[in-house]
Design brief:
The protein is α/β, with parallel strands linked by helices. 50% of the residues lie in helices and 12% in strands. It has a single domain (20-233), classed as Rossmann fold. The protein contains 9 helices and 5 strands. Belongs to the thymidylate kinase family.
Length: 234
């Protein structure tokens, strides 16, 4: 169940009403295996049933952007020591998003809700975790200066943190790797110690309301899509 003070789920009459265009940018963050793809699908169905227009995207855009392609290759051992460079990898992630900024703004203008699977906070959380820093450290500040201040990326209306134990996330990721040929885990996703540190930074970012409001959702429980849709639309 989602955590926090959410309004009650809308009844059938409200759910079937056509919503007025709101242009909300909603980001789903969490570890690999937290359930981001499932939450994206459930929210898309719920919001669409209420008459909202919804579009989705995921970062990194491995098949659509050369910077993301380089990230994928570096994570699998190519390009020398690039994968070992925290700032080098972070810049590639950031450039991928910068390249998508114009399209994001167009989607926000054209749809009621834009749902993103990962965004700027993922760069901040993973980089800080790799450097063994916390959310108030130099790396998170550097990401903010680069992606938010310099690149001017669109600000989310709400960031949802799917919080799960690292053990549960790893188990889900391993199952997905066994059953889906295109879902092989990369070097970051296979590093359990890194995943644990990253989870801690995510919690700190959410608690601090980093960049925009956050809502922590229990990723181990069945999501209340109705309550989450109410929060997004209201």
């Amino acid at each position: 169940m989602p955590q926090g003070n959410l309004p009650p789920a809308a009844g059938p009459e409200t759910s079937s009403a056509t919503v007025v265009h709101v242009g909300r940018l909603i980001v789903i963050e969490g570890l690999d295996g937290a359930g981001k793809r499932t939450l994206t699908g459930g929210l898309t169905s719920e919001l669409t049933a209420r008459g909202a227009t919804v579009t989705t995207a995921a970062f990194p855009r491995y098949t659509d952007d050369v910077h993301a392609e380089l990230v994928a290759e570096a994570l699998n051992g190519s390009h020398g020591d690039l994968g070992s460079s925290v700032h080098g990898m972070a810049i590639l992630y950031a450039l991928d998003r910068r390249g998508a900024a114009e399209r994001l703004r167009a989607d926000i203008a054209a749809h009621d809700v834009v749902l993103l699977d990962r965004y700027v906070a993922s760069n901040a959380a993973y980089g800080a975790a790799r450097l063994r820093e916390h959310s108030d450290g130099e790396f998170v500040s550097w990401v903010r200066e680069l992606e938010i201040d310099r690149f001017g990326l669109p600000r989310p209306d709400l960031q949802l943190l799917l919080r799960v134990s690292t053990e549960l996330a790893a188990g889900r990721a391993q199952h997905r790797e066994r059953t889906e040929s295109d879902r092989k885990r990369d070097r970051f996703e296979s590093d359990e110690s890194l995943q644990q540190r990253c989870a801690e930074v995510y919690v700190e970012l959410a608690a601090a309301g980093w960049w925009s409001p956050w809502l922590v959702v229990d990723g181990a429980a069945e999501a209340d899509f109705g309550a989450l849709a109410d929060r997004i639309l209201n």
